């Protein structure tokens, strides 16, 4: 395997010329790369140490037809309403160009805006609902109503109490307000205050940052780690420091926007492979080594594979053993985003690396966030010490972004120590196991009731397919009437025929709560 520290120093020796010759001579053909698990969970090869089961059931054809028909009807009525607005038959609530701007390129009149004002606006009440309590297994919601079909809202002053929270990423239940649990956080808040007011490279590195970075490295089993104040920026502001012009990024088609943005900002060439499809990835790797860069045919400076641990919209888990096998075979690098998987899977909550029984050394760049399982904010990058030292100097977040709040760092430290058993209890391990039990129970219940759900049986992200656009708003409103808060997602965030509700299971959910949701 190539030296992982070369990810950061720009002097990567891929041995691409050697690989190129081997491929042309036919020596490097498809050998030793298992194709992974089939959808029925049958094991292929020896890469997997446990059964790997994922569900992506296709809906009947009539569902797809009715879904397209629903969008078609909505579009026709949208154009009709636009016509009525243009002739003054209906009030225009949206921004419009002034008469003096008519000769300029229009700012607002495009299809995206058409979709927003005519389709999204009809179901806008299902998003951005303000809550007024801790986002634990239940929360309190500020009631709001609209008098103009969701163009504006007003608050009634009433609070909807004890709504079952199936939308927050509170996987381990650390989003809590228990005084005893938050005692150390309170102490650090009184000691350091609320903000650092400086970047890591200036006056913003505190002893709490040193402590948390050592703890994260120990938790993950790597040499070093660096923390950042924002999870999204951990990807978007650090990928450009690792790769640039002359490098190749191979990105899963369902990667999060933060990964996509970071890849685009880097200036590297980006190629997309089909989701969790090892044949697609291997074809791109082979072509990259044989043909090199476009026009010049020079070898790529670096080839880096970007994947996620758990894909937050599909509920699927990365096929890490196969990807690591391909990465080693073709001397590429691997960047693993464990935003949703760290804390949520693995016997002790150490993410997909532990879930598959692999070594952290198999992954060159380990990334994760503290915004989900740890009930805090921020993110981390971890790996070899050379890599982290390079990021301390070249990371855009380290140079320009304000450091993590000390009280937030203490919340992460207390949650991570709980997971590691360093608090003298087994509470952390119990939370991980409870999350696994809740996840499997809730998924099994939905399957038994005949719903089509996506993803891996061990993923706490549970997408329930709704398909038709009319069901998006109806489902969320109906659930809220039953005192259940859910996230609904539709086009363009999902394929046009795959609108869905996304449930996020927590260790803090009781069996009664899950039963209430499944029977609502």
UniProtKB/TrEMBL annotation:
It is found in: Endoplasmic reticulum membrane. Its EC number is 2.3.1.50. Signal peptide: none annotated. The chain crosses the membrane at residues 59-80. It is an enzyme of class 2 (transferase). One of its GO terms (biological process) is sphingosine biosynthetic process. The keyword Ribonucleoprotein does not apply. CDD domains: KBL_like. Pathway: Sphingolipid metabolism; Lipid metabolism; sphingolipid metabolism. It is a single-pass membrane protein. Its cofactor is pyridoxal 5'-phosphate. PROSITE patterns: AA_TRANSFER_CLASS_2. GO terms for cellular component: endoplasmic reticulum membrane; serine palmitoyltransferase complex. Residues 161-517 form the Aminotransferase class I/classII large domain. Its main location: endoplasmic reticulum. Keywords: Acyltransferase, Endoplasmic reticulum, Lipid metabolism, Membrane, Pyridoxal phosphate, Sphingolipid metabolism, Transferase, Transmembrane, Transmembrane helix. GO terms for molecular function: pyridoxal phosphate binding; serine C-palmitoyltransferase activity. InterPro entries: Aminotrans_II_pyridoxalP_BS, Aminotransferase_I/II_large, AON_synthase_class-II, PyrdxlP-dep_Trfase, PyrdxlP-dep_Trfase_major, PyrdxlP-dep_Trfase_small. Belongs to the class-II pyridoxal-phosphate-dependent aminotransferase family. This is serine C-palmitoyltransferase. The gene is Sptlc3.
